[in-house]
Structures are given as C-alpha cells and as structure tokens.
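Encode chain A's predicted structure.
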Amino acid sequence: MSGQTVVGVDVGGTFTDLFVLDEATASARIVKVPSTRGEEARGFMNGVARIGAGAEAIATIVHGTTVGTNALLERKVAKTGILTTRGFRDVLEMRRRDRPQTWGLRGSFTPVVPREYRLEVDERVLADGSVHTPVELAQVRAQAQALLDAGCEAICIFFIHAYANPVNEQAAVAAVRAMWPNSFVTSACEVLPEIREFERCSTATLNAALQPVVGSYLSRLDQDLRGQGFKGELLIVQSNGGVMSRQTACDVPVRTALSGPAAGVIACAAIARAAGFPDVITGDMGGTSFDVSLVAKGEAALAAQTAIEYGLVVRSPMIQIETIGAGGGSIASVDPSGMLQVGPESAGSNPGPACYGRGNTRPTVTDANVLLGRIAADRPLGGGLLQALDAQAAERAIETHVAKPLGLSNLAAAEAILTVANAKMAGAIRVVSIERGHDPRQFAYMPFGGGGALHVCAMMREVGVTTGLIPRYPGVTSALGCVMADMRHDAVQTLNQGLAELDLEALQQRLHQLAQTCQARLDSAGVRFESIQEVINLDMLYAGQTHTLSVKLDATALTRQGIQQAFEQTYQQAFGRILQGLVIRVLNLRYARIGVRPKLDLKVLAPQGPGSERVLGHQKVYHQGAWWEAKRLARLDLPVGARVQGPAILEQPDTTVWLEPGFEARVDAFGNLCVQQEGLAA
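Encoded structure for chain A:
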C-alpha cells in the first residue's frame, strides 16, 4: 500500500469526519462536514469532495457507519417475516422473561417482527442433531409466499436446534431463495450456529431487517464513489473493531452495529499503547451520545453479545461500549418534578444547539459551554462550518428553560447543566470500570469526539483518574481508527459436550472448517495483509452452571489436558478458586481470523518542526462560581514538550480543550496532550 491515500470515514449523528493519510508523504489531515441525517451517503460524499485530490486518487476507504444502529433504534427497518419451527413462533417476543426496568411493575416490548408475520412450518431437529421430522418444503414455499403477499421485503428462517444439524434449515433456505424476489433471505444457522434459541433468533431477525437498509445504503455509496472515479476498495468497520468487505457488510449487516464507536476505541488503544498507557478508559463525546469503553493491557474488551436497545439483542463479538445520551447536542430541561435532566434527546446537527442560530430554542451542553466562556463564540466551529456562535441565543435558551424554572442565575444554570452531564458521564465510566472489577484510578482517561476534551478535567476529578490523554485529533479519532483497524472475521460453532467425551479429532475438523470460511471472507476483500493471525476460544463451564467463561487457547494446546488447564486457570482468575470434582463442559468453539493491515506510524500525528505557543487571545471563563482569565492557544502549534497551565483554552479545528485551574498539560512525542493536576505532572 506504499504511496497510496487511505481515508477513514466516520458518520456520526452531528458531523461526518474524515482522516486522510497520504502514505507517499507520510502526512495526514482531517476533514469535517455536517452529517445529513437520513441521507448519510450525501454527507459522506460531501466529505470526499473536500479532500481535494478527488476520489480517483484514493486507494482505500474504510467506513465506520451508524446506519444500522440508527435504523434499529428508530425502528426504521425493512418489513420482515420469520419462518420457524411449529411451536416456536413467539421466541422473539418471549425473550428471556426479562423486563425493561428491573424493579418496574409494568413494561412493554414491541418485537421487530409482529406476530402475524411470524409463521410456522412442520420440522424438528433434536438437540443431539438427529432429525425427528423432515421439513415440508411445500409448506415452506406456501408460508414464504404468504409473507410476500403481506408485503415483507426480507425474511429470516429460524429452525430450532439447527445449530446441531442444519439440514432442515438449509433445505428451507434453498427453497425460499429460489422463489424470493431479492437477496434478503437470512438463515439463522448461517448467521449464528450457536445454542440458545432467543439470541439466535434475535440476531438473525435483526440481520434480515437490516439487509435492505444497510445494503441499499452501501450500494448507493459504492455507486456514487465509482461515479466520482473511485477504483479502490471500500471496507466497513465491524462492531468487533475489525473491518470487512462491502459485500460481507451487505450479507451480515448486524455486525455493523456500533461500528463507529468501535473504530474510535481501536485508535485510542493504539495511541495509548504508544504513549506508554496500556490501561486506558476511553470516552467518545459527540453531538448525540457519550460512548465509554475500557482497554486493559493494550486490548479492548470484547463482549459476546449486546443489546442495542431493550429486547434488541445481537449475539456477535462486539467491543464493550457503554452508551448514554450525553453529547454536546443533548438537550437540558426541567422535568415536572423540578429535576434538571440532560438528554437523551439531542438537537443533533440540524437544527443543532441554540448557539448555532438555526432555530433551536432549547439549551444544550454546548450552549452551556459557550455561555460559560469555554468555547469562544467568535471562533469558527468544525473547521469553518460555522464562522461564529450566537452566545445570546445560548443564554436565552438557558434562561428560559433552566434558570427561571429553577430560580438560578443564568451562569449557575449553565454550570448546573454541565454538572448533571458530567455526573452522567462519570457514572458510565464507573460502569465499565468499577462494576467490572477495575479500579479507574489505575487507568488513564482518554477523551475524544468533538466535545470530550472540554470535560477532561471534570472527568478526572469525578472519577479519580490521575492522567488524561487527549489525542492529537480528538474530533476525528473514530475516523483515524478506521484507517488503523485490521480485517477480522469471527465464527462460532456449538459443541455442547463434556470435556471427557469431547471428540478432539472432530474439534480439529470444525476448527479447520471455520478457518476456511473466515479466510474466504478475507480473500474476498481484495486487500493485502502483512500477516494472518488467528484467535481460538472455547466457551466453557462446570456442569449445572448457566453462564460460560471464554477460555483462550493456542492451536497447539487443543488436547484434553491442555483445555482443562486453560479452563481452570481462567476460572481461578475470575472467581478465585476452582471446583474440584465437577464435570467440565465445552459449549461453543469460537474462532477469529485476522488479516493484519500495514500499520500506521503514529509519529505522523506528531507536531512537525519547532513550533511555538501561539496565543489567540484571552477569554473570561466562569468556573466553579468565579470568573477566571484564560489564555486561548492554538493547540496544533504547540511543539513536543510544551507545557500549558490552566486555566487555558486550546483550540483546533475539530475540538476545544478546556484546561481547568490547577491542571497542567504536556505535549508528548505523538502530539497527545498529557493532562495532570499541578504538582503531579512529570
């Protein structure tokens, strides 16, 4: 890939960010344009047009997309039908007998597929894989036709125990694909050949419902790019932090959920490792949400499944991310009980915060930062998207909707908005750290996104973190992560056997099959890799237990003794003891194949040349009930080793850094700002 231009594109709720890497000159630059909600491809193409050299000069585009996530959250998915085994029509609705609020007496859930579009057929495979009742294909065709007649655009075929023997489901899928008018036919055993019927049904159904949405978006995007002369590869970021080809994303769009935030975590992990911080908590504050993740020993934590929303469960490897509605555009309001609330409703990019002057009259977190002086109203925003902000509109919005209802001054109301927002964000940090057995004081905190650096000192104070690490380009970190991510494909196969009875030869055969399947996906992308890596895990437990442990294994350790030793070591680390004498069971085999792409030299982000402290002016900032005089500095002009003492405002095209009194920042060799309290700084 030497001498090529690689572009990472992250489409967020407010801005579309591009990170442009020119490998010929070892240089990088950023582009930021407004997102076009509902027409994400248009915002994407607007960003590509601003690169300058034209689409024909780009070798690879790696895209992190929220199209699938937004479609699920807003329930704007395709009309979908389900064909399932007789008696299992309501698996999707019954879930795990859980409730939206743990202690609530009431709760409602509307499944993605209404009951009238969930049809049954006669077939039955038993848990041991034996076929009890062969599938009736004439019945399958008739039911599929009924779903077509009802207007279904996509269909999911989900047969019970197909993970143990897919013969019935495969026959039904072949019959339906022969008659279905498009390619939106999802087989549950192809998407997730894993035990547990609800998770398999939910994941496959959401995949089917997303295929027309994500597929049409990516196809339109590809056509637009080709029309502009693009001849390279379009790759898509997965929720596990790897990338996949456009066609794979069209086939398995459910794996794109949360792909944008996942790319940001990948970038943060790499930057923090290079800077000497293998343990870091990341916080992505954009215009709509605040996404938190934890990286321990240089590796982001993967979860086997996640819930996009209550009842919308996706069982696919995903970087563990905690999301709350606390972005720069989150709207502040006083509820009927007189309590100040921030989010989850957001003003987004259109109309945006009140200070944007686009018609919104309700206050947001950004408006509070403007009124308090932490964002200079006269500076261009988003790389020149707005030439100035309307501080008076921000103050009117805060006065009308927060200050007067609470009997506060306008400045106190603005501080109250930030206090509530900071408390919500700190709570999310505690969820990914303390609640999972980690002491946040042992981690660095790495804010990114357009708004994260404004709150870095507040988060350090709230959570007790001693070091903040602000990347060179916080506002486009997710786009940077797109450029850095390796290609990865995950596969799973249920085994459901006791360790003593486990057929090791069959295990090796299944492992070989999964490796071939994943390698075929890598090959289909047409991308050059520096090396190929593989990750092997077994989901294991003691007989009688419900929850499993993921046990990582080397390919050379797939012996009965090696598996037992690895399980007992993992169990000991998790629970402090092992249970001697109990039967050990192996539930699932998990396999990941990783195509390692050429690595980005992070020194491309470092300040070039001697640089100097360029003062843009001085700003009055209201902080903790008092006014402070803060210097306004051009952050990107600061040379390596430069130190800045708070109070200070550091400005750059993609974000603003607010350095509170009592804090100090130092520029490291990679252009990061290392923030510590004065007296603790090295």
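The two ends are 39 Å apart (CA to CA).
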